[in-house]
Amino acid sequence: MSKELLSVQHLKKHFKTDEGIVRAVDGIDFSVNVGETFGLVGESGSGKSTTAYTIMGLYTPTEGKITYKGTDISIGINKRPLPLKKDMQMVFQDPGSSLNPKRSIKQILELPLKAHDISKEDRQKRVIELLQMVELPEDYLERYPTKMGGGEKQMIAIARALATNPSFIALDEPTSALDVSMQAKILNMLLSFQKELDLSYLFITHNLSLMRNIASRVGIMYLGKLFEVAPATEFFHKPLHPYTKMLLSSIPVITDEEERMKPKKVVSRGEIPSPVNVPSGCYFHPRCIDCMDICKKEEPPMIEVEQGHLVKCHLFSTS
Amino acid sequence: MDDMIVDIRDLHVNFSIYEGVLRVLNGVNFRVGRGEKIALIGEAGCGKTTTVKSIMRILPIPPAEIVSGEVFVEGRDVLKMSTQELQNMRRKTVSMIFQDPTAALNPVFKVGNQIGDIIKYSQTRSGEKIQKEEIREKTIQVLKEVAMPDPERIMKNYPIQLSGGMRQRICIAMALVSATKLLIADEPGTNLDVTIQDQVLRLIGGLVRKRKTSVILISHALGAVKGLVDRVYVMYAGNMVEAAKTEDLFSNPLHPYTKALFNAVPKLTGGGIPEGIGGRIPNYLDPPKGCRFHPRCDHAMPKCRRKAPPLYDMGVGHEVACYLYGGE
Amino acid sequence: MDTERLKERIRKNWYKFSRNPLSIIGLVTVLGIILIAIFADFVAPYPKHAFIFVDFPNAKKSPSYEHLCGTDMSGRDVLSRIFFGFRYSLLMAVSVLSVATPPGVLLGLVAGYLRDTWKDTVIMRFADIFLSVPSMVLALAVCSMLEPTLYNAMLAITVMWWPWYTRLVYGLASSIRNEYFVQAAEVTGASTFHILFREILPNCLSPIFTKMTLDVGWVILIGSTLSFVGLGAQPPTPDLGTMVSDGSKYIPGQWWISLFPALFIVLIILGFNLLGDGVRDMLAGD
To answer: What separation in angstroms does the CA of B199 have from each of B96, B165, B212, B240?
Structure first.
């Protein structure tokens, strides 16, 4: 078993708004091991991005604990020590706004190096090295992000994340805004970096076909709760939670082979409720075809059905 | 030509920017029959939106410029229509749903009013007045058609009070009011979750089946359109490179680009991350001569560099623009 | 390499600026005003008339070939005084804006970045104090407390001007701070100084510069108003507002003494406004 790098215990992040309390992340537990890719999947409003932001310190947890390399890091980014910031990095969703349009690529790539007091000469060298790693020519240093396509911008964002040699990178929908061919290129790059540099990834996407091929373990979130966690093959071939099945059955696929693999079609009923007004008991019960009486009253516990495969559903709780 | 609702012939469109002239559309040929459902697939920047905007003639001119070609809608060349005729066409014949439903709705007007406006302008001939009561009834009717729960209450809401899925349905409702013959949907549901996107696409499918409207569905999500359309056009860098019945295209893609595109999509069954397509999409300021895909094509021949191939007919409605399949 | 890129940038910016011919008219007008102000000694037909000069036989002469805008009550050539008057107008605009803008922008940046904390509230309420007093009233109050001079008028206007920049930058900064590139900088470990001045501020420059160009007109107008009521530059200084005020006694008989300075005030404001539009077009994204 790999060593555990990051773990999240009973993590909650709530926001106070005019309409009420938004329970963006509402008590989740999972861990990311060294050298693996943990995938977090779910629809918009599920809380997966908020989870990543809280882990990175852009939000402070309302409750719960985040442990990294054995240390408790449940504090905001401003209070985190510099060496920690060097070790944990993030790639954001929209390449368009993750690079400052008024800064040149050189300045963007130098920033993490400057922040960690790397000398000017070393910086020059490292910046060129980073560009080579993402297969972009040296003359890109003087360019500005506005002149680049989405894919290239995202490659710079990845180079920036790698600048300080981190051990952990959170990636929030890194390829969702990109075309299929760009997506493939970037993902292949990420996988090879992972092998070379022994990186651990927290990978977020709503694209299930993509997740199938990049994650070693997958967790699915809904309205701030984690409903199922399993190794990738099991998650996709033997999904247990009704929500997982519903989602998997609506994935658009091209080949007949994939079509046959999907669970039986569950037409999704209704839409995800507002996070200010969550249902009672199991949050999914209003849309669940297997809803039982107990689902309306009590939140189900997280049960380990098989080794490494956990589900939060009354269909599987022993009582 | 009469049973074609749209017939685009050899359309060339340029865009002027500071650095020069972008030669975006490079001789586009595109046909939609009456009652036919077409998908137009291709990656970002290939010219899909430019093509459909030419049908409705809503390209910003300048900086766009229609260099040559003809765009027939119901047998009349859109490029030669007067303003009055264009307005008529946009009100009564063709309508469009845009990618981002939030941007397409005016945030300061109630949803009911926005639909009401469309009803007012599309259903009346100039001079004829339509009663407020009638507009209200039609609005409710149209909201019911897009499966909107509690239409009377929704009508009084502002777009910001509704979810993304609902906004998209409102846009569809608005489009259906005026589209009697042709509906153009530009990446509907792309910004929404996969389950809602599924709902939205089913909704469109059901409605056009009922009304026998033609549809042009633009998407870069290949799997999403598969169950919905009769025929698929594949576009690359300003050209149609392949066209076929849906079944045929997915089971037997012919053009090297189409094949590469299908291969580049990660499969649910596994298999790792695919290789992707080598090279980059061309720079429209200085596009490759001849077939625009040749720099990235494994099968490129000398003649590919000289002249762009025409669409060869392979029979059973399957066309390919590639010298591998025709020409001497 | 660097000069090549610089030339390219200039060419591109000019392209964006010159799309609207009115911007060019604005630019030419403003350049003309600046050049005349600098070289007034050489351009004015009667440079000695600028301050104290008496020639009663020639006083109150209507516009003619020798005196294109006529002469005033002391016999001074109105046009020459107007040319010298440009100096004071421009001086006022440059001084006020260069002193008011930096603190205003700085406070706006800090408040916007720290949005929704107590520091944000303190800063913005402080700015609100100045914004809540009608601008003319505030300027008049400051001026009447001090001696009426040009410099005190500039001080008064500066005091009431800076909060507008705070407001402007506050709005910009508080939305920019949520962009991914700012969060990326925080995650990376950049200092707050870097985030404010290297990440957020460069994205605010376009509205700030546009506002500054448009503000030139407003500052000159308010300065002229203060002079008009006697609280700014005093005679014999050839300040345009003062000239309008002095000449108002002679309306309608010798209308040219007030009218021409007033027209030139309008011209300056119009020129800067058109220029400001062009600046906005130039700094707008591609």
So the answer is: 19, 9, 20, 29
Q: Is the pLDDT of residue A319 over 60?
A: no
Q: Per the structure block, which two tokens stand in for A248?
A: 């998997």
C197–chain A Cβ distance below 8 A for any pair: no
Please name the residue that has the structure tokens 């997982």: A244
Predicted local distance difference test score (pLDDT) of residue B2: 58
Distance CA A264, CA B113 (A): 41
Q: Say if residue A60's pLDDT is above 50.
A: yes
ipTM of model? 0.85
Q: Give exposure, A183-198, as e/b (b: 16+ Cβ within 10 Å).
A: bbbbbebbbebbeeee
By CA distance, what is B149's nearest residue in A?
A: A270
Q: Flag if C180 and A57 touch (Cβ within 8 Å).
A: no
Chain C residue numbers touching B18 (CB-CB < 8 A): 12, 15-16, 286
| φ/ψ of residue A15, rounded to 5 | -120, 140
**B283/C211 Cα distance (integer angstroms):** 37
pLDDT tens for A19-43 read: 788 899 999 999 999 999 999 998 8
Strand order in the sheet with B76-77: B20-33, B4-17, B64-73, B76-77
Amino acid A211: pLDDT? 92
Phi first, then psi, for residue C173 (nearest 5°) are -65, -40
Shortest CA gap A273–chain C (Å): 26
The number of C-beta contacts closer than 8 angstroms across A and B is: 113
Nearest-CA distance C176 → chain A (Å): 10
Contacts of A180 in chain B (CB under 8 A): 43, 220, 222, 261, 264-265, 276
Side-chain half-sphere of B124: how many Cα atoms within 13 Å? Answer: 15
Q: What is the mean pLDDT of residues C133-154?
A: 81
Q: Please, where are the H alpha helices in chain C?
A: 2-17, 21-38, 40-43, 78-113, 118-132, 135-145, 150-176, 180-188, 192-194, 205-228, 240-247, 256-283
Chains A & C: contacts with CB separation below 8 Å: 65
Give dist(CA C227, CA C151) in Å, integer.
11
A99 contacts on C by Cβ (under 8 Å): 181
C190 and A111 within 8 Å at the Cβ level: the answer is: yes
Q: What is the pTM of this model?
A: 0.82
Which residues of B are less than 8 Å from A44 in CB distance? 164, 192-193
- Rounded CA-CA distance B71/B54 in Å is 8
Could you read off the pLDDT of B241-273 as tens digits, one per residue?
999 999 899 889 999 999 998 888 888 888 888
Provide the greatest CA pair distance for chain C: 78
C193 shares contact with chain A (CB less than 8 Å): no
Give the burial class of A89: count Cβ atoms within 10 A of its Cβ; 0-12 exposed, 13-18 middle, 19 or more buried. buried
Chain C nearest CA to B217, separation (Å): 30
> Which residue on chain B is closest to C11 by alpha carbon?
B18
C-alpha to C-alpha distance for A265 and A103, rounded to whole angstroms: 48
At B279, is the secondary structure helix, strand, or coil? coil
Given a cut of 60, whether residue B127 has pLDDT beyond it is: no
* Ramachandran angles phi, psi of A121, nearest 5°: -65, -45
